[in-house]
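Note to self: keep these together.
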Amino acid sequence: MATNPTKTLGQRISQRRQAIGLTQRDLATQMGFNSSEIISQIELGKREVKAWELAKLAEKLYINISDLLAADKPYSHPPVLWRVLPSDQREVKEAKFLKYCEQYSFLETINGTTLRRPFPQKSVNPSTINYNVAARLADEIRGEFGLGDRPATVLEKTLENKYGVKIWYEDMDEGSAAATIGPFGPAILMNRKEAPWRRNYNFAHEVFHLITWETIPAKMMEDNKDAWDNIEKIANYFASCLLLPADSIIIEIEDRVINNEVEDSDLIEIARKFDVSIEALLYRFLNLRIIKRESVNSILSDDRFRALDRATMKGYWCDPPQLPERYVILSFVAYQKGRLSRAKLARLLGVNLPDVSETLQKYGLDDRDIHAKIEVRA
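Structure:
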């Protein structure tokens, strides 16, 4: 018996809507329909879906049109490992993040710039992994990635440009980051609201999860809270070891020690130099037995020291762009080469058509006279 394509599409829309936790009323509102009954009729296969509606439905459901129309296979997405699970709309947030990753990968493909360097996977035993293993992994990754003596200053760009990690920023009210690996490769979702030095630490933390993705799966972490808590501590230690190489910071502190003491301002200067928080630096010194816990607690509880630390932060503060710079450049190049329509470019940039030029200019890109001909002599 022949299948009814309208009914099949309706079922796919219903499945996807429920998978990301939207009600029919939610979807109707986002679509601009005056009644949820329209969504109900579509899902029951009793109403045809116009072409513009299909495109908008795919956008609101964070799914490609081809996946929405693929009746022969269920849509499944890779797991997303969160630092802190969202208290609401988790499914929507994950779907949105994964959709961005797919768009990013699409742009790489049509530009022929897909990075072939495989992201390293390290085999570990989640039951026996410890701080010594984490420290060894950090040393390995720092060498493989070529991060040098001050890893935080180059880590994000190395992940993005050398290994093709899809990095996306969102304003989060809770949590700091999330990570996944899918058909598009590895990806990190970062909280835009975090301080730059905190984001550096979060990137290093998520690198641990990405390099152990195959042997410490996200599902296992969600199902076992005790295991999750232990692995998160290991990931934090890995991040400290990665961003603060022992040899490098020991040299920095030794150069500043006078009569077995170091000035508060020197500690802050080292933290800024390595682009980490003062807490991260002090606890790294503690782990290396350079400083005692009593001293760490005393420093961190000193209001004068805290004020001095905050006073130096302004000059180092930087906010990430609304869209990843590489993503925007890939969009622009694809449009420049005629591989994207201007309407598609606008959708990928998340703006209305009249705002495309202004958005591109914020990234130093100019689309005026983009297809102009150059006269040459015969």
